[in-house]
Amino acid sequence: MKKKKIIVPLLLLLAVAVYFVGFYKDKNLKYIPEHADAVVLIDTKKLTGQYLFSFVTHPSKWSGNKTKNKTGSVRDSGIKIPDFLQIFHIKDTKFSEWYSVLELKDPQRLIAFLKKQKFTVKGNNHFQKDQIFLMIEGSHCIVGTSDLAFETIKKGLLQSPANPVWEADQFIQNTLGSISVISGQKIQNFSIELHDDEIEIKNNSNPEAFHSIASKLEKRNQFLELELDKENLRNFSLFFHKSIVDSSQATSLKATANIEQVNDTIISYEYDDNFNEVEKKSFQKITQPNYIIDIQSKNPEKTWGYFQSKKWINGESQFTAIPFQPNEITRNNNGVIIKSTRKPVILSPQLKENYILIRNNALLYSSLKALSNTEKRIISDIDYVLYGNKSQNYWVKIKAKKGDLPLILRW
Q1: 162 and 286, same structural domain?
Q2: Could you give the CA distance from residue 325 to residue 289 in angstroms, rounded to a whole number?
Q3: For residues 50-69, average pLDDT
Q4: Would 64 be classed as within a structural domain?
Q5: Domain shared by 248 and 338, yes or no
Q6: What is the mean pLDDT of the chain?
């Protein structure tokens, strides 16, 4: 009886410990500023659980590389891993600027970790490696793809005595992660799900229509295919020029492209012994696309006039806004067509859907010299990226090549 009296409380304590370690989550999001317009959340406990399950069910991984990482791991870097990793974008900043605030268990350990990772010390507890910036402020660390908003974040989140606190349930519902777009009081959420060989981002729990598009496109082999209506064009133009769609009168766009490696001639000049100028030719291999773009317009004449006003059409009827030359632009009764002239490309059959498909190609890797070997390996593992839209439903699939291990163990 005495043993039972001891075992029962121990089991209860163990159950409570397992709950708090593995399942309980602090849903208060203290490190998202009030003026954020986009938020990415990652449920770190769900991610850890998914990793452990995949690890246990794939014994081939157990006897993997046991060599210790001499530079250490993030978990040993002095950072307190949050239940929800909070990454945000601040309104009226560049699309490429994303930030996160992390609590620290040991700032000195983090500094030592950053030095091992070969971060450059910029002074005043600022560090940088490539496009990753960090600033240590007391028991917190601000991380970003830029450091332009560090001071604003420090004053707004770390020095303000009372910050408005968001709740995780406003952004994420039982998925691995989420991407949320904030507009005033409206929040539009997109779930992130990680499967064995693909990542899905969507705002609809029943993406059968998108699977139908994917099954049709998977049978093709073009590098790039897309069809977009006016609303999708307007959404994507926000990244480039807000008024381009309305000003150009464009109503839809369809494009097909392939890539190939070509010899590029470089002409330079040097002088001989008699100081005569001598032309010297050299060659380098570059990756260039062959493409055709069909822009439908409700007023082709105005579309043509808009492109001329932007000086995008030169005297040789080339569309100079596309840097890959040579090409030609022509006008017809339905709009304008832009196509490369080196090797003709035929438009893919129309699906009458909204989608963008980018298929992986080994020729891309020669253009990614700035990436690390790990980043190149991850990209080389991707088969294609597909975006789809139907009404108010959006979907993005990042499809990886088939492998012996699920993505969470590969990447």
Answers
A1: no
A2: 9
A3: 78
A4: no
A5: yes
A6: 87
